[in-house]
């Protein structure tokens, strides 16, 4: 499975806490894009696609949601619910996001600019691609 959970260093003092992410340092790629997902709805699922070229780190800055990760052979469920933990997802991994808590906010760091042509949005196409590799 081409994913891992990363524990980020917290700089904390009496004023609160801070986490810093830097490309090619505690983020294992150059950061080309940042986006965030908010105003999510608990019963609405997102994702349901894979990426041919993209690597990402996803952080639940606030709230929680469940990720389903699938490499075409195995399927695992991960809860993202801490602002000091990042979910790294590499190439060719099917992902689904669901069970968003109210007010959940996800911040995403991406290794490439947005390119709809590198999305695989059909699960059968994804299975064909990974089983060919
Ligand atoms: C992923 C998960 C975690 C853009 O125009 N630029 C962008 O950078 C992105 C990410 C999306 N969009 C447009 C494309 C769609 O019209 O925003 C709309 C919603 O995107 P999508 O349906 O792909 O959103 P999610 O939440 O299903 O998936 C997103 C990312 O697309 C995906 O790479 O891994 O978040």
Number of domains: 1
Average pLDDT works out at 97
Helical fraction: under 10%
Structural class label? mainly beta
Name of the top-level CATH class: Mainly Beta
**Can you count the beta strands?**
12
Architecture per CATH nomenclature, i.e. the level-2 architecture: Sandwich
Low-confidence stretches: none
Q: What share of the residues does DSSP label as strand, in percent?
A: 35-45%
Bound molecules: dTDP-4-keto-6-deoxyglucose
Shape: globular
Query: What is the CA-atom radius of gyration, in angstroms?
Result: 15 Å
Determine the number of helices (DSSP H or I, runs of at least 4 residues). Answer: 1
What strand line-up does the widest sheet have? Answer: 1-9-6-11-4
Described by strand count, sense and barrel closure, the largest sheet is: 5 strands, antiparallel
CATH superfamily: Jelly Rolls
What fold name goes in the CATH topology slot?
Jelly Rolls
**What is the chain-wise order of helices and strands?**
EEEEEEEEEEEEH
């Amino acid at each position: 499975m081409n994913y891992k959970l990363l524990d980020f260093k917290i700089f904390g003092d009496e004023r609160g806490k801070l986490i810093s992410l830097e490309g090619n340092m505690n983020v294992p790629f150059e950061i080309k894009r940042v986006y965030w997902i908010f105003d999510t709805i608990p019963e609405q699922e997102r994702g349901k696609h894979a990426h041919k070229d993209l690597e990402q780190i996803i952080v639940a800055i606030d709230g929680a949601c469940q990720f389903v990760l699938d490499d075409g052979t195995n399927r695992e469920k991960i809860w993202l619910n801490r602002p000091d933990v990042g979910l790294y997802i590499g190439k060719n991994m099917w992902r689904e996001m669901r069970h968003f808590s109210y007010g959940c906010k996800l911040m995403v760091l991406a290794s490439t600019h947005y390119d709809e042509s590198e999305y695989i949005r059909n699960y059968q196409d994804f299975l064909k691609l990974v089983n060919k590799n």
